[in-house]
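Module 6 notes. Inverse folding takes a fixed backbone as the condition and produces residue identities as the prediction. Think of it as a translation problem where the source language is geometry and the target language is the twenty amino acids. Below is one complete input and output pair. Work through it position by position during the lab.
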């Protein structure tokens, strides 16, 4: 099964298409109007970012037509990797899709590329990872809030791996009030632990070996990297930012604990919970403020 994952950012995903080119005539006027209103409130005088956000929100709305569940994946690392560049988590996305489809739900998957390439983008991502700012989480939450407003039967799963799990958590904290938003996170950074929530699944142990990145075992990471430098490392795989070794910081659908926990979580929450078809009114001040 091939995963098609269009990118939720102005740059196109290497294995998908960007959510920026859209025929606005396909969207109802009220969807376009509310997208414009929300985008102008978020970015005020920045015309380029306003137009990009409007395009992404409207296109996301169109892609979600006749869908029951939307999975939005936040990659680890610096936030610019596509699903094709993260084959292990791709197995998890495929597994999640199969579980939901076996329950009779129609699923769409998007790849939230939160960072562009370049030094300024890296500075912004570093600030977000260190929690100097939660703006990136809010930026994702704004898109989801708008989508759910206009797709009243849709459920959204915010998925995140490693640093992407931290961003998923920031978005989830903005959307705790929304009963149709769920989260699946693996390998959260030790300095930014996720908050337990009935609609969130947080996995920081793959069932094979403790996650040194999530547990903050810096000493073990240093030893593993020094051993690898001299070709003497014999332990398990796992890395942070693609190059820094972190034993145990690896998650795949092939690991029984990962597969069983996610399957049970989806079956007990996303599959079983049903909601009213009434539209949820979009409250422009409902989201957490940008810091």
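Target side of the pair, the amino acids:
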């Amino acid at each position: 099964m091939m995963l098609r994952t269009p990118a939720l950012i102005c740059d196109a995903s290497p294995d998908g298409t960007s959510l920026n080119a859209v025929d606005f005539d396909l969207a109802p006027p009220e969807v376009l109007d509310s997208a414009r209103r929300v985008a102008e409130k978020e970015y005020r005088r920045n015309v380029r970012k306003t137009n990009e956000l409007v395009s992404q929100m409207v296109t996301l709305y169109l892609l979600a037509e006749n869908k029951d569940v939307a999975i939005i994946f936040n990659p680890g690392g610096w936030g610019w990797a596509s699903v094709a560049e993260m084959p292990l988590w791709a197995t998890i996305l495929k597994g999640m899709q199969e579980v939901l489809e076996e329950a009779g739900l129609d699923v769409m998957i998007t790849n939230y590329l939160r960072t562009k390439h370049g030094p300024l983008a890296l500075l912004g991502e570093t600030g977000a990872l260190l929690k100097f700012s939660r703006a990136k989480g809010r930026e994702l939450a704004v898109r989801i809030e708008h989508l759910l407003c206009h797709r009243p039967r849709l459920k959204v799963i915010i998925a995140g791996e490693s640093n992407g799990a931290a961003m998923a958590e920031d978005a989830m904290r903005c959307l705790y009030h929304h009963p149709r938003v769920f989260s699946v996170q693996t390998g959260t950074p030790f300095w930014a632990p996720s908050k337990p929530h009935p609609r969130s699944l947080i996995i920081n142990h793959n069932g094979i070996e403790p996650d040194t990145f999530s547990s903050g075992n810096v000493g073990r990471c240093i030893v593993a990297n020094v051993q690898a430098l001299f070709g003497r490392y014999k332990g398990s795989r796992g890395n942070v930012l693609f190059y820094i070794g972190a034993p145990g910081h690896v998650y795949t659908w092939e690991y029984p604990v990962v597969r069983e926990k996610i399957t049970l979580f989806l079956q007990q929450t996303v599959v079983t919970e049903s909601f009213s078809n009434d539209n949820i009114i979009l409250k422009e001040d409902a989201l957490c403020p940008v810091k």
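Reference fact for the lab report: The chain has nine helices and seven strands.
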